[in-house]
Amino acid sequence: MGPGRVFSDVSMRDLGLIRRFVLESSITGCGDRQIVDELVLAVNEAVVNILQHAYNNEPGKIEVIVACGAGVIRVVLLDDGPLFDPTTVPNPDITLPLAERPFGGMGVYFMREFCDELRYRRDAGGRNELTLLKRFGP
Amino acid sequence: MLIMSIDMENGRVPVTVLRLEGELDASNYEQLISRTEALYEEGTRALLLDLDKVDFVSSSGLIGLHSAALIMRGETLDDAEEGWAAFRAVSRDMIKSSSQEAHFKLLKPQPIVRKVLDTSGFSEFMPIFDDEQTAVASFD
């Protein structure tokens, strides 16, 4: 995947910008608006998690890479915060009362529900790298 | 961005229709909470939230919806962050009562918003309507 778009000093006010970037980068290759909308939702939740947990609600830099083709949309989010792996946040047991779920668990739950794969690693430069993958049909 | 406007309708009781336009997310859900608090203070006791022009609702946006529902029940929220506690209190509400909200209802959510409501379980206790006339008439 090539370089992405770097969003600097990202705060909650910039969520719409990032959502529109992902939408516009995906919709031409994947004509299914519902699929793209679901992926955009998952990416939004991931960005909020980065802002809250990797950047402690302070503005920070996020690089967003979008690749769409061969029935797959792949979004990679890179941030410079301390290690934060959202894939380790346990899924809420939806049969349990919501009051017993960990704080923030609903955001990661949405990430999992609205994309097909979620992968985390620390990249060679020590950045958090989160990949969200959504498949679509012909 | 979130734009809000108000219409008053008359069913069996006066109904305030709060029409939202845009996207409801972490940057603006508190605006919905503040507006609902103001409406309640002004005397609104039946609130229909028109989501027809809302393209996006995130998990943070759901905090706004649930906080608004609590406000319409007459509960106060000291702080918008209590919305998180309110969100987690959803389940307590569900255990106490299987009935849906009587004073706060939703109108015409778009497919992606409907999916968010279904996935989160909110559609179980927030009445959802596709027709405004029917929605307005449902309040008593």
Can you describe this structure?
The complex is a heterodimer of chains A (138) and B (140). Chain A is α+β, with helices and mostly antiparallel strands and 138 residues long. Chain A has a single domain (5-135), classed as Heat Shock Protein 90 (2-Layer Sandwich). Chain A is 32% helix and 28% strand. Chain A is built from three helices and five strands; from the N terminus they run E-H-H-E-E-H-E-E. Chain A has a five-stranded antiparallel β-sheet with strand order 1-2-3-5-4, covered by helices on one side. In chain A, helix 1 (15-26) packs antiparallel against helix 2 and helix 2 (33-54) packs antiparallel against helix 3 (105-114). The longest helix of chain A is centred in the N-terminal third of the chain and has 22 residues, at 33-54. By secondary structure, chain B is an alpha/beta fold. Chain B has one domain: STAS domain (Transcription Regulator spoIIAA). Chain B has helices at residues 29-41, 59-72, 82-96, 111-120, 132-138, and strands at 2-10, 14-24, 47-57, 104-107, 128-129. In chain B, strands 1-2-3-4-5 form a five-stranded mixed β-sheet. In chain B, helix 4 links the parallel strand 4 and strand 5. The longest helix of chain B has 15 residues, at 82-96. Chain B is globular, with a radius of gyration of 13 Å. Chain B starts with a strand and ends with a helix. The model of chain B has no long low-confidence stretch (mean pLDDT 87).
